[in-house]
Write a structure and sequence with these properties.
By secondary structure, this protein is of the alpha/beta class. The chain is built from 6 helices and 15 strands. Helix 1 runs parallel beside helix 2 and helix 1 packs parallel to helix 6.
């Protein structure tokens, strides 16, 4: 029997595991892929308190080691249904399911199409690439790619970026194309050209899509209340419509999705799960 089973080993899930374990509760942390979540693909993190600068991989690795040193049970498992958790007989569940990159409806899955600039950027040394998007991720990708590629296009459908001013001011050696949509991509097995709605065609060796995220909430869509975009409906207390299920991180309805808010969610979800157990069952350790 586990007091808390946590699905997802990103920042939110691992923070929840730390808080619950330190409080003396038996915790199982389940992750289907790599611990750390999307942050492992970030070259440099500069906006997390306490770290002037750290790579996303190092940050995630430090957090994982902290979790393991607390003797949290950790398993790699692709959970397809919450019914699979019954074998662990959890008293509470924390969903830290995270999110994935949105696909672009006009971009085919060809060779040369990527959703991770830090993963694939070095492959495009002295080549021509395009980044699609206008938020922080898109601009960070464009800045990173400009270190390798001979030409970087940044294509955004609106007339101004949503990104922080710091990143806008760092767009050197990047050709910006605003108020423009990608309406088609040309290529057989490998992408060769983008067709834009301003009657422009761009020859490219690679395309990096950074147009937002989609929550990984398919396994709870028939159980929990979701908003129109698929995010689990929960307030700042991280409570869902089922009393012993809590949610934390990018899969929750909220305005801001950053490392610091994921960490905050993880702590709040764990503490409220503990409070629920104490009030419901008197199981304080």
């Amino acid at each position: 029997m586990y007091d808390i089973v946590i699905l997802g080993a990103g920042t939110a899930g691992m923070t929840a595991a730390i808080y619950a374990s330190r409080a003396g509760y038996k915790v199982l942390l389940l992750e289907k892929e790599m611990y750390g979540g999307q942050i492992v693909n970030t070259e440099v993190v500069e906006n997390y308190p306490g770290f002037q600068q750290i790579s996303g991989f190092d940050y995630a690795n430090n957090l994982y080691n902290q979790v393991k040193n607390l003797n949290v049970d950790f398993e790699f498992q692709d959970v397809k249904s919450l019914d699979e958790l019954k074998k662990y007989n959890p008293k509470t569940i924390i969903l830290a399911l995270g999110a994935r990159h949105k696909k672009h409806e006009k971009i085919k899955d060809l060779n040369g199409v990527s959703y991770c600039a830090t993963c694939d950027g070095p492959l495009y040394k002295d080549k021509t690439v395009a980044v699609i998007g206008g938020g922080n991720t898109a601009l960070i990708d464009a800045i990173f790619l400009s270190k390798y590629a001979k030409k970087v296009y940044l294509i955004h459908r609106r007339d101004k970026f949503k990104a922080e001013q710091k990143y806008i001011e760092s767009l050197n050696n990047v050709e910006i194309i605003l108020n423009t949509n990608v309406i088609d991509c040309i290529g057989n097995e490998k992408i060769e050209k983008l067709i834009l709605d301003n009657n422009q065609e761009i020859e490219v060796d690679g395309v990096f899509v950074a147009i937002g995220i989609t929550p990984n909430t398919e396994i709870v869509k028939d159980i929990l209340k979701l908003d129109n975009n698929g995010y689990i409906i929960a307030g700042e207390d991280c409570k869902t419509n089922i009393e012993n299920i809590f949610v934390a991180g990018d899969c929750r309805t909220k305005e801001i999705r950053q490392l610091v808010t994921a960490s905050s969610d993880g702590a709040i979800a764990a503490l409220n799960a503990i409070k629920y157990m104490e009030e419901k069952n008197g199981n304080k350790k």
